[in-house]
Amino acid sequence: MFIVTMVLFLLPCSLLWAAWRRSIRNAREPAAPSWRAYCGKATLILAAFSTLLELVFFYSWFHNGGSPHGLMPSSGIWKIVGRISFWFLVASVVVSAFGKGRWRLLIFAWAASLVLVEYATLMLEMD
After folding, report:
1. Residue 12: which of 126, 125, 122, 120 has the closest Cα?
2. Do residues 16 and 110 make contact, with C-beta atoms less than 8 angstroms apart?
3. Which of 45, 64, 74, 85 has its CA 20 to 30 A from that of 101?
4. What are the boundaries of each domain within the chain?
5. Is the pTM of this model over 0.90?
6. How would you write the pLDDT of the chain (127 residues) with one tens digit per residue?
7. Burial annotation 24-62 (CB, 10 A radius, 16+ → b, else e)
């Protein structure tokens, strides 16, 4: 499951990488006010941390036994990291509304793909 998780997380990571590239290209244009540029950088940082924390969550989840049929695994870092990752995901989507640029569409696509990858990973774990 570790390898499957890494392969599935390539989609959100590639979308996040594309958003970073688009944001860096737009930073050269001085048209956006500075507070909107700061919101953009904050969004990308929150999104990166959310992705990394979600990977940590799944690795801790699998390391502690996982839960293929609804049973709770033993205690681990997954209990805390999962909630933090979720709130970082929500915060990155909310803060991206204050940014400016087409990279925001990539953030929305990243958020949707991250939720899809989480669901797919949990469904594949049940098989």
Report:
1. 120
2. yes
3. 85
4. 11-126
5. no
6. 788 889 999 999 999 999 988 888 876 666 656 788 788 889 999 999 999 999 999 888 888 877 666 666 677 788 899 899 999 999 999 999 888 778 888 999 999 999 999 999 988 887 6
7. eebeeeeebeeeebebbebbbebbbbbbebbbbbbbbbb
